[in-house]
Amino acid sequence: MAEKVLELKNLQAYYRHLKGDVKAVDGIDLTVNRGEIMGVAGESGCGKSTLAYTLINAPAHLKHMGGEAYLNGKEIMSMSSGEFRKLRLQNISLIPQYALDAFSPTKKIKTHIRDLVRQHGVSPNDEFMEKVKDRLKIVNLDPSVLSRYAMELSGGMKQRVIMTISSVLDPDFLIADEITSALDVTSQRFVANMLVNLRDKEIIGSAIFITHDLAIMYQIASRIMVMYAGHLAEVGPAEEIMHNPKHPYTEALISSLPRVGIQHTDTRLHGIEGTPPDLTEIGPGCRFRFRCSYRTDKCDETPRREQVGERHYTACWNYEQVGSDSNDEQ
Amino acid sequence: MGKYFGKKLIIYIITFFIAVTINWLAPRFIPGDPVTSLLAQYQGPAAGRQMLETRLRTLFGLEGSLIQQYINFWANLLRGDLGRSILQFPREVSEIVKNNIIYDIAVLLPAISLSWIVGNKIGAMAGENEKIDRYIMPLFYGFVSSPYFWFAIIVVFVFAHSLGWFPTARAYGAGVRPAFTLNFIIVFLRHWFLPFFTMFLVGLGQWSIGMRNMVIYEIESNYANYLRSLGARQKLIRNYAFRNGVLPQVTGLAIQLGQIVSGAITVQVVFDYPGLGRLMYQAVQQQDFFVLQGAFLSLILMVLAANFLIDIIYMFIDPRIRLSYSEEE
Ligand SMILES: Nc1ncnc2c1ncn2[C@@H]1O[C@H](COP(=O)(O)OP(=O)(O)OP(=O)(O)O)[C@@H](O)[C@H]1O
Ligand SMILES: [Mg+2]
To answer: Does residue A279's CB lie within 6 angstroms of at least one atom of ligand 1?
Structure first.
């Protein structure tokens, strides 16, 4: 049996505000096995980064509201922050969406690395720094970047340095949030492939690769989860999701790509009418129903998760209709 | 690096030049001629009066065309000659300034540096520790928001008048002769303390408030979040935040210096403590233009020099400055 690295069960996390709760992660079920790269897709604002923050970096006002998250079989939501701190970087790590701004301007890159590993009881001795230099070579960087300040590095270089730092203690699970978004097309490919490379070299055990760029996701993800407005819409093997979607939103996402399933470089999510709902104090029911052409009365109830194939689930009452010719738009 | 230094130097030279020029212009264009007012006290024969007037004009650098006077002024200045006092004639202004500036330095140097260092520490703690923030910061806001003279009056009232712990007026008691004895040092320190303390407290408030706000901003910044996500303890993040928060504080010091010095003038007047501030205050009242001019010029020079020093220090502590200028070269 495949080894589960991360397992989420009905995970809920809301931003608590005076105006009400922003239900940005609301009932996510997910299993990521060792060796898998799980793509997470969805429109801007659907809660992708919030999911990442819930797992590793929750700001004070983002509250875990229910459900569980298991890392290597251990529940992490109920862990004390002191206990969880030890898992960071060694077991679970993050490449944040703001990677280009993730360095202190007054410290050299190597100072960041040294200080960080010391926090985990690893001594940054010569041997260790040699290893770091080897890692930099993997991402095609000259070891001299270690003695530089962040302002001396280009965006692509910073992204690769962050990649090296976040994986420096060989974490079992790496969250990569929009690591390609700020880069040009060639760098995007390179960085995405680097993630696969890290996995192949078993530097990282498995990863979540968050992006809104389905084309690049399809290149590297073995499985894909599609989120809509804080809900899980559909999750399954990448091939299945791209060629046989079972959720109206996934279908719409894919049909908005210029050519389905073909590696395409400059794609944006457009062509779905309407806007996502406001996540503040949103009620029950399928959150996509306001924009959905399959909508029925049943959709006012929150959909159950239905298994529609081998490790392929959808959250839609009318999934049987999805993909059938009668309802095919465009 | 050299380029940064050069650029700064040019700016400071220009500033100095302008300041000196204004300083030269001011007494010449305010109403009332010092020589005439001095001569009014003369009661000798008319011939002597004529002679005296010429001598005085030469002494005060007031003879010849304006351009001539201006050139002479610079020539004298560069030799360290600031003219002569009208009131304490014929004492040299440079000597009077020298006797006073010691007290400015004795009060300002420790007050500014200590308040800066301690203020930054306390501010950094307050940025992180809610208790300190809640109980100490309001007090500091109080220090900062009251004008210097008001604050100085309160300090005098409490510590000198009500509690009677410290004397006011003069740098040491009347009749005490400066000497390198323990006794004199104690007397000196007791006189010195309140002016120092006032300046220190205001600075303390100022710097800690600045640092507090910087640290609050820094520990929520992206790099801090990144470090935290990867398991850095709060202590490490605090160090990083402090390192970055201190930069604007250094710049702030340069910006605030002029204001601090003008605050010191007020404090000296309130405490009747010697220094360039009190000297200027007296010079204004007694219309001693050249003392005023000399004291003012010395203050400007002091502030400019300190500013220049801070700029140089800044270059060493902010890699961005260093790098952006080395790239140009
Ligand atoms: N600090 C916050 N307080 C309240 N609401 C927030 C906060 N941060 C994000 N949100 C809301 O939570 C929802 C999810 O945001 P999130 O950043 O997770 O989106 P995302 O899917 O990562 O989008 P993007 O693709 O633009 O990065 C959005 O509706 C957003 O408005
Ligand atoms: Mg995001």
So the answer is: yes
Query: Which residues from A are below 8 Å from B229, CB to CB?
Result: 56-57, 88, 93-94, 96
Integer CA distances (angstroms), B255 to A134, A223, B248, B267, in order: 46, 57, 10, 20
What backbone torsions phi and psi does residue A95 show, to the nearest 5 degrees? -110, 105
Whether A116 sits inside 8 A of B243 (CB atoms) is no
Q: Which two structure tokens, joined as six digits, stand for A296?
A: 């029925």
Confidence at residue B25, expressed as pLDDT on a 0 to 100 scale: 84
Atom of ligand 1 nearest to the CA of A59: 1
pLDDT of residue B28: 74
Q: Is the CB of A97 under 6 A from ligand 1?
A: yes
Q: Is B225 within 8 Å of A96 when comparing Cβ atoms?
A: yes
Query: Domain boundaries in chain B?
Result: 2-78, 96-328
Chain B environment of A90 (Cβ under 8 Å): 231
Instruction: Report whether residue A285 contacts ligand 1, using a CB cutoff of 6 Å.
Output: no
pLDDT means per 10 residues, chain B with 329 residues, are 83 91 80 72 77 78 82 88 80 90 92 95 90 86 83 87 82 74 85 91 92 93 95 94 95 88 88 90 84 88 90 88 65
Please name the fold of domain B96-328.
MetI-like fold (1.10.3720)
* Interface size between A and B, measured as CB pairs under 8 A: 72
State the CATH architecture for A4-100+171-321.
3-Layer(aba) Sandwich (3.40)
pTM for the predicted model, two decimal places: 0.85
Q: What is the pLDDT of residue B327?
A: 54
- Cβ distance B230 to A116 less than 8 Å, yes or no, reads yes
Instruction: Report the residue from A88, A104, A107 with minimal CB separation from B230.
Output: A88
**Nearest-by-Cβ selection for A105 from B226, B236, B244:** B244
What is the structure's pLDDT at A258?
A: 65
What are the residue ranges in chain A where pLDDT is below 70?
1, 258-271, 325-330
Angle at which helices B289-317 and B2-29 cross, to 10°: 160
Q: What pLDDT is recorded for position A137?
A: 94
Q: Which of B155, B148, B94 is nearest to B279 (CA)?
A: B94
- CA–CA dist B296, B35 (Å, integer): 21
The DSSP bridge pattern shows strands A20-33 and A4-17 to be antiparallel
State the pLDDT at residue A264: 46
pLDDT value at position A262?
A: 47
Strand partners, A12: A26, A66
A212 lines ligand 1 (CB under 6 A): yes
User: Chain A: nearest CA to B115, how far in angstroms?
Assistant: 24
* pLDDT confidence of residue A299: 92
The complex scores an ipTM of 0.89
Alpha-carbon span A94 to A155, nearest angstrom: 18
Residues of chain A found within 8 Å of residue B227, distances taken between Cβ atoms: 112, 115-116
Please tell me if residue B232 touches chain A, with a CB cutoff of 8 Å.
Answer: yes
Delimit the domains of chain A by residue range.
Answer: 4-100+171-321
**Distance separating alpha carbons of residues A165 and A229, to the nearest angstrom:** 31
Closest residue in B to A91 (Cα–Cα): B230
CA distance B304 to B9: 11
pLDDT of A266: 45
- Confidence at residue A269, expressed as pLDDT on a 0 to 100 scale: 45
